[in-house]
Amino acid sequence: MALAANAHGRVCTFSSRPPTPFGSRSMVTMPGHHVESPRARFVVRAAAERATWLPGLDPPAYLDGTLPGDYGFDPLGLGEQPEDLKWYVQAELVHCRFAMAGVAGILGTDLIRVSGLGNLPVWFEAGATKFDFANTTALFFVQLLLMGFVETKRYMDFVSPGSQAKEGTFLGIEASLAGLQPGYPGGPLFNPMGLAKDIENANEVKLKEIKNGGWQWLLCLALLCKRL
């Protein structure tokens, strides 16, 4: 505020504030009223639009929605550390695939049995079934060897992505295991239909796999409860 005297000896006051679009009046914000900027409204709207497992719950900062199927569900904080989060992502993916394979095996063998095409045991008695071509001990060690080899290769690809597609790492068929991300080897062996050629931008296909795997978890649980 500045003071000055005019020609008539009167003291005049001049405001140092620049004029407002409403003339000489200045806009005063009344107590209790908040003027929200468009940018703030956009941020609030964007945050509200993200789907979470519990509506109204703010997801953890490390679950920013970039992962397929990320709805902010981690009540125990297991994925708070980046390295742990990477491992749990792979664990969820593998469990989804095992669940899908398990449900297909249960329903497939039941269909073969009830249709009369084969005399296969029900799924909860399959472990006690004896086979003529090999005894149970031999089958156990063969399964242990084969699954151990596959799981070791998977872990090595997790530690060093793309390493299992290098020449000389797997009997000359390394090109069939080519992939750029752990858990998605790709190639003609694991992606024969070419549904996810660009795995970096295949979030929609990844999300479908996670959702289908989640449903198979529930179906496995339902089958187990029915048996009990």
Automatic annotation (TrEMBL):
Family the UniProt entry places it in: Belongs to the light-harvesting chlorophyll a/b-binding (LHC) protein family.
Keywords, alphabetical: Chlorophyll, Chloroplast, Chromophore, Photosynthesis, Photosystem I, Photosystem II, Plastid, Thylakoid, Transit peptide
Domain of life: Eukaryota
Positions with a binding annotation for chlorophyll a: 92, 95, 208-209, 212
Primary role: The light-harvesting complex (LHC) functions as a light receptor, it captures and delivers excitation energy to photosystems with which it is closely associated.
Gene Ontology annotations of biological process type: photosynthesis, light harvesting
Record GO terms (molecular function): chlorophyll binding
Source organism of the structure: Triticum turgidum subsp. durum (Durum wheat)
Lineage: Eukaryota, Viridiplantae, Streptophyta, Embryophyta, Tracheophyta
Record's GO cellular component terms: chloroplast thylakoid membrane; photosystem I; photosystem II
Name of the protein in its database record: Chlorophyll a-b binding protein, chloroplastic
Pfam families recorded: Chloroa_b-bind (PF00504)
Residues the entry annotates as binding chlorophyll b: 97, 177
Subunit structure: The LHC complex consists of chlorophyll a-b binding proteins.
UniProt subcellular location: Plastid, Chloroplast thylakoid membrane
